[in-house]
Design a protein that fits this description.
Length: 88
């Protein structure tokens, strides 16, 4: 399930074979990550589902990079938005 990423110390979780239960599986990985960046391989064509599940305003920001047979979703912890304008 986990293979080392070539350009990072964080692992890449291969969920490319998961159809049903993808979002709960990703959430479980994120919960266990310890707050660092997380890379997840997902089946191509699931960008709408991922945007709906992990869109803006959550604890994680993500980018989706298309690949040949899978897409790479990179999740990074969201910045603290409570004082984004640094008014205090």
């Amino acid at each position: 399930m986990c293979a080392p990423a070539s350009d990072s110390n964080s692992p890449t979780h291969d969920l490319s074979e998961v159809c049903c239960g993808l979002v709960p599986a990703i959430r479980a990985i994120l919960d266990q990550s310890g707050g660092g960046p997380v890379r997840v391989l997902v089946r191509r064509g699931l960008s709408t589902e991922l945007v709906n599940a992990f869109g803006s305003g959550g604890a994680w920001e993500f980018t989706l990079s298309p690949g040949l047979s899978t897409d790479l979703a990179l999740f990074t912890p969201a910045q603290d938005r409570t004082n984004s304008l640094q008014l205090f």
